[in-house]
Amino acid sequence: MKDKVIVLDGIDFLICNDIVVDNVNYLYVISLDGSKHTLLMRKIENGEDTVESVTDENEIKRIFDILAKGENN
Q1: What does each C-alpha distance from 57 to 4, 32, 34, 53, 63 come to in angstroms?
Q2: Residue 52 in contact with residue 27, Cβ under 8 Å?
Q3: Longest dimension (CA), the chain
Q4: How far apart are CA 63 and CA 66, in angstroms?
Q5: Which tens digits make up the pLDDT trace of 2-57?
């Protein structure tokens, strides 16, 4: 994986993990100053690449468990 920086709300975030689980693309990102981190779902709709925050705690835990184990399905 090639590390990338994305800008969300004017803040630069480093994409630390980019995985696909159950046909959903997840991005784990950390702000370059280290003060913020979040899990995002990446979608491409009508040719536009967008992300939205994952807010479901069970889903966040499941994805972090997969990341911790180094799995990717």
Answers
A1: 26, 24, 22, 11, 10
A2: no
A3: 34
A4: 5
A5: 559 999 999 999 999 999 999 999 999 999 999 999 999 999 889 998 999 999 99
